[in-house]
Inverse folding.
């Protein structure tokens, strides 16, 4: 058997110069884990994201940021001040060996230091230059500052997240990093396929705002087609068994009876009866009400915007929901998940990070991936593959790089600088 | 240079996927030049064709904004896969395709006779891309699910929102739209490039829950390394203050503001007219602002609530402070001057749905930009696919229609 490290991969002929800050870091990781040689170029002193926690054992140290770890595995790293003339000369030599450049500078910055696409493509005519920024390279907001929360807000996805009377919710985890990087990677791969076919390079432009817009789900079509404005619905349960419920050790989501999914009501009733917890729901008045809940009505209540219909039905169904609340409260999320799914009911736990690490399905599939960190004298469990390719597997090639870890390897080993030259550049603050 | 060539020209996709996570990425392939043949059936309707929103007074399978927005630029080919003669038609399509896409419950394709082995027999270098909920094996492989339950399963719901509130998630089937289709298209394009280089096809599997857990990576590492079970923190960040959404003038209008360092804090103070509270010692450092975040929020909101969200954003951004209107769907579609100038939303005329807005590509290629055609009506291209793609004559096609295969 061939060592997986020796197997050809989708991108093992590709070199990426990764100048990206937070929103573009995941892009370099995705490319590296499909086989590309990704050289992360950080300013001397390291990327500012290395100062963002949480940290390994809570030790604040730029080589111990878990936030950084999560976005930078499999890359090599060098330091370089590209704003200096000597730094640019080195960058240009590296560029001549590269296929892709990914960066997240404010629009216009690279041009201002003489490294715009026009220059890059003169040095390397088929270069693929991917720029990620808050609002794209042009347009009235292109110069706006855009940390995650701003891009999320401006993309419309925040407006529909949370509870009606309260401030809208920003999703956990700087989701812009993932969405913008995923869009960038897609564009880069398409540009590579085009280059393979035509030898032509090009620019890939990603606006973080645009990268997120699709996450609004149906909100834009609703406005466009119906002039209905989707707002925040919180935990409004228009139908019993469709929504989030508190259970013995946390929360579960029930999606029982959703049109097109899962089994409808009778099985849930059987479950409650089997457990002796159906209370009075077998009485005729409640059974009649179930009888009226046909697919059409369920669809109208679940998807629809007819507030009058909802206002009529929610109180009618509230007793049923109350019984269900008591039923669910008496079990753990693990039990409800297993038993509900065994009965063909769409039930899912609200998992915590601990639940995920202990998840039987993820562990059966060996999803979590151990990565050795010799300097920390430990092996750390990382999130695993986003996808599994039979022939060209995803693979974490190495732990995330320490600051300037590959300076020697790249500058001396590949560009042929002498130790003295490297020392001089380091002394001058260029490397 | 070949003018107007698109990056995926010459690639054909037999698209058996439905709902969101599959069709969204195959649309991106179609927008960039691939010929995507959606295999659908009257006997097995894509639930999104029946989903809202639909135009007032129209309730047909061709007008759903939900469906149409994810299926631009494709061909719709109706084949009833439950018919015994459908397998042959499907395999003929596979034989002339590069990619087969599907996102059913594991075993569905096999039930129709479309095993990976069978696909390879008719097309040795085929790329089969599967998007099961939990993966093709393991104790939960057959558990039911769809986008709505992925946020809770993947940890996003637990980590999002106010700690005092029920973890309702993001109000949408979040990972259905960018995360899962995005990871899937990346894997698909990688497989395509691998095939171009080696001649080999392959099986690609994207388990939607696995793909989704990737995006809570920091929380995973924090638990794995430090044993800390992170909880939701509302809109706050440990390393920024203020950081949140602040109420503005008007009904349900909000503007987010984010300040990460002292320089930005001073800029915020200046932009808000240098009020007295800006000089208070307790707000002078990030640590102080974090410790007094509730009070800070009230003071900032007193300033924002007498201004429109747009005014707050423009004033603060002009001063170099990160701020953004919490835009709603109307804002992004009709009011955002930036999106308008960039033409992100594309309006297309559809024979039944009329003129409606579609999301444009989430990335822009300078020389080979994607372009959109309206979504297909159910079975709109059945005849075209039979004749142009499968090389059928009228007689054969008629037989298949009469037999109920092309349905």
């Amino acid at each position: 058997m061939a060592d997986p490290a020796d197997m050809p991969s989708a991108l093992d002929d590709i070199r990426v110069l990764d100048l990206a800050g937070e929103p573009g870091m995941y892009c370099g990781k995705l490319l590296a884990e499909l086989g590309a040689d990704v050289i992360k170029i950080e300013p001397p002193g390291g990327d500012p994201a290395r100062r963002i926690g949480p940290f390994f054992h809570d030790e604040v140290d730029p080589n111990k940021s878990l936030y950084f770890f999560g976005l930078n595995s499999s890359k090599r790293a060098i330091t370089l001040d590209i704003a200096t003339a000597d730094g640019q000369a080195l960058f240009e030599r590296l560029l001549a060996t590269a296929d892709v450049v990914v960066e997240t500078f404010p629009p216009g910055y690279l041009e201002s230091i003489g490294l715009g696409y026009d220059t890059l493509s003169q040095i390397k005519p088929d270069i693929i230059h991917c720029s990620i920024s808050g609002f794209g390279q042009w347009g009235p907001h292109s110069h706006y500052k855009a940390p995650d929360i701003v891009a999320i807000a401006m993309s419309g996805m925040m407006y529909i997240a949370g509870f009606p009377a309260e401030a809208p919710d920003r999703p956990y985890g700087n989701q812009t990093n993932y969405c913008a990087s995923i869009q960038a990677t897609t564009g880069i791969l398409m540009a590579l396929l085009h280059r393979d076919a035509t030898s032509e390079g090009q620019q890939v432009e990603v606006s973080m705002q645009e990268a997120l817009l699709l996450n609004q789900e149906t909100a834009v079509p609703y406005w466009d087609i119906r002039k209905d404005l989707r707002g925040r619905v919180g935990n409004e349960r228009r139908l019993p068994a469709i929504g989030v419920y508190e259970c013995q050790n946390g929360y579960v989501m029930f999606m029982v009876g959703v049109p097109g999914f899962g089994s409808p009501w009778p099985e849930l009733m059987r479950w409650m009866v089997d457990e002796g917890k159906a209370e009075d729901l077998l009485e005729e008045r409640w059974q009649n009400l179930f009888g009226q809940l046909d697919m059409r009505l369920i669809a109208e209540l679940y998807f629809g915007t007819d507030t009058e219909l909802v206002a009529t039905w929610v109180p009618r169904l509230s007793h049923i929901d109350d019984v269900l609340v008591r039923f669910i409260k008496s079990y753990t999320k693990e039990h409800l998940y297993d038993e509900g799914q065994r009965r063909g009911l769409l039930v899912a736990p609200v998992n915590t990070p601990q639940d995920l690490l202990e998840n039987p399905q993820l562990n059966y599939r060996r999803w979590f991936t151990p990565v050795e960190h010799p300097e920390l004298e430990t092996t750390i469990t990382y999130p695993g593959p986003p996808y599994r390719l039979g022939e060209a597997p995803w693979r974490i090639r190495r732990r995330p790089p320490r600051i300037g870890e590959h300076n020697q390897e790249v500058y001396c080993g590949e560009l042929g600088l002498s130790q003295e030259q490297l020392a001089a550049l380091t002394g001058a603050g260029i490397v | 240079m070949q003018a107007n060539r698109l990056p995926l020209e010459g690639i054909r996709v037999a698209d058996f996927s439905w709902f969101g996570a599959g069709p969204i990425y195959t649309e991106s392939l179609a927008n960039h030049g691939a010929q995507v043949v959606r295999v659908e059936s009257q006997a097995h309707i894509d639930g999104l064709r029946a989903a809202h929103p639909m135009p007032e007074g129209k309730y047909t399978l061709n007008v759903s904004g939900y469906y149409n927005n994810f299926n631009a630029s494709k061909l719709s080919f109706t084949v009833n896969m439950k018919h015994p003669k459908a397998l042959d038609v499907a395999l003929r399509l596979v034989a002339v395709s590069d990619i087969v896409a599907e996102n059913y419950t594991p075993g569905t394709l096999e039930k129709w006779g479309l095993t990976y082995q069978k696909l390879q027999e008719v097309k040795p270098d085929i790329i089969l891309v599967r998007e099961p909920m939990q993966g093709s094996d393991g104790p939960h492989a057959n558990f039911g699910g769809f986008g709505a339950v992925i946020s809770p399963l993947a940890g996003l719901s637990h980590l999002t929102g106010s700690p005092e509130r029920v973890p309702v998630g993001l109000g949408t089937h979040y990972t259905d739209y960018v995360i899962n289709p995005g990871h899937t298209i990346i894997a698909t394009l990688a497989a395509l490039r691998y095939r171009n280089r080696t001649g080999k096809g392959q099986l690609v599997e994207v388990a939607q829950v696995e793909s989704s857990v990737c995006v809570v990576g920091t929380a995973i590492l924090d638990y794995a390394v430090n044993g800390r079970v992170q909880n939701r923190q509302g809109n706050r960040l440990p390393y920024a203050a203020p950081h949140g959404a602040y109420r503005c003038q008007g009904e349900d209008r909000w503007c987010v503001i984010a300040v990460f360092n002292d320089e930005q804090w001073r800029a915020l103070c200046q932009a808000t007219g240098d009020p007295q509270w800006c000089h208070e010692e307790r707000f002078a450092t990030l640590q102080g602002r974090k410790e007094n975040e509730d009070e800070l929020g009230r003071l900032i909101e007193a300033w924002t609530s007498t201004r429109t969200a747009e005014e707050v954003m423009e004033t603060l951004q002009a001063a170099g402070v990160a701020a953004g209107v919490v835009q709603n769907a109307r804002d992004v579609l009709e009011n955002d001057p930036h999106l308008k100038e960039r033409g992100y939303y594309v309006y297309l005329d559809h024979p039944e749905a009329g003129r409606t807005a579609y999301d444009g590509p989430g990335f822009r290629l300078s020389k080979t930009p994607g372009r959109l055609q309206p979504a297909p009506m159910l079975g709109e291209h059945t005849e075209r696919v039979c004749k142009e793609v499968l090389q059928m004559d009228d007689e054969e096609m008629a037989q298949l229609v009469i037999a109920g295969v092309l349905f």
Q: What stands out?
A: The two ends of chain A are 42 Å apart (CA to CA). The mean pLDDT of chain A is 94. The longest strand of chain A covers residues 37-42.
